Amino acid sequence: MNFYEILGLPFEASFEEIRGAYFAAARRMHPDINPDRSVHEEFLKIQKAYETLSNQDRRLAYNNSLNRETVASIYAYRFLTSRNQISPRQESQLIYGLLNFSSAGEIEVSRKLPRYISLVIDRSTSMKGDRMDTVKANVLQLFKKLNPQDVVSVVAFSDRAELLLPPTRAEHLQRSEYSILSINPSGGTEIFHGLDLGYKQLTTFANGSNNPHLILLTDGHTYGDEEKCYALARNAGDKGIVISGLGIGSEWNDEFLDKLASLSGGNSSYIKSSHELAEFLEKTIGVKHEIFANNIRIEFSMDANVKMNYAFRISPQTNEIVNQEILPLGVLCYGEELSLLCEFEVEHLPSGKDEIKIIDGWMYFNLPGEDTPRRVYLSKNVFVRPAKEDWQPPAEIVKALSKLNLYKMHEKIRDHVKTGNIDGATQYLKNLATNLLSIGNIDLAKVVIRESEHIQKYQQLSQDGDKRIKYGTRSLLLPSGQEK
């Protein structure tokens, strides 16, 4: 690893970026703060990198010693903000940040590693019939599409959990088909039992270089164990285990499933048909799904008068990230781009302050085959100056915000329904339909129009229409061509 990678910086980093990256690392790894011996050795590497790159002559000599392959980064990233300065006033001001991160090379064959997958299947009574038949058929099809070295386990749960298939290599899965076909729906829904057993099948394989993935398939609500599920999801995220939640039918609790997946860096999806389930499994863990980086997370700090209102992952999957000190972002494949949109709010700007730190921290990630995480330094300051009249935010941020606004309209519709403001909800539905028609999304606009009629008649959203609008508007954030 070269000096630029040690500091998490690109080859063309400025002196200010080098200095900022060094002091950010020193605050976490200085021997006076962290006495751990291994951390001390890492700090010595950081110090040597800084001493070399912060000196113009030493940096030039060091750069000349690097070959072209060493200089060329295997990843690309940038962090844009909607503005580079804010006005010196006391009112709250919003700043938007857009992080883009992607691979910068071809798939490295040496980094192709087995995938570790735990399927956690709801077998409660409500899954009886077509729903369970759909799940069984797609799981068996998935078995045929995995690489021979991939490892799969299967858990079925209702008010208790059972391990139907212990971790088994894909090349031996044919003899395990009966355990899937024999799933018989009965009992209630207690998701924690299934999650816990599925999670335990993956902990053996959870380390920085692997990509363990738990996929939960459910059609209902869990009762009384939500907090235990959230705590498990946080632990999973800390270990690099991603949880994906698949809601089948229209009765499941989307708020619960969204939060559960987000806490581990995963995402949730609305599955309306066998085709959509097959499409999700193929896209998520199919043979062509080659991992570039996993266990991606951001650790950061801000000035005392700055807060993050939300962080929304736009791609490769779309979901709001639970706001906490560490933002788990899951995995990234070759050919994909990780995009994260954040809203920062500057409150009560102190007089005399000429600069505000919006974000200062690190994005960590593991490359397959590497136990030690790599890192990218993220830092952005904005100046406190009178606003320019010709100021324009970057087009990428404007585009992302315009699409996110459609998704946020759904949240406002729900809020109005909860408070009994049916007229307000109806007006937002009409506005949403108009916006969808203007961008050519006729199918989703029809769903919204039908829902406006439903809400007038029944004073509430239908379960199916509510979820179609939520996940339909959320998918608009995906890059062009991936909306479906």
Give me the CATH fold name of the domain at 113-285. Rossmann fold
Q: How many beta strands in the DSSP annotation?
A: 16
Coarse morphology:
globular
Termini separation comes to 40 Å
In the CATH hierarchy, the architecture of the domain at 113-285 is 3-Layer(aba) Sandwich
Largest sheet: 6 strands, mixed
What is Rg? 24 Å
* Strand arrangement in the largest pleated sheet: 6-5-4-7-8-9
**What's the overall average pLDDT, rounded?**
88
- Give the number of helices: 15
| Beta-strand share of residues | 25-35%
CATH homologous superfamily of the domain at 113-285 - what is it? von Willebrand factor, type A domain
**What CATH first level of the domain at 113-285 would be assigned?**
Alpha Beta
What is the percent of helical residues? 25-40%
Helix/strand structural class: alpha/beta
Uncertain spans: none
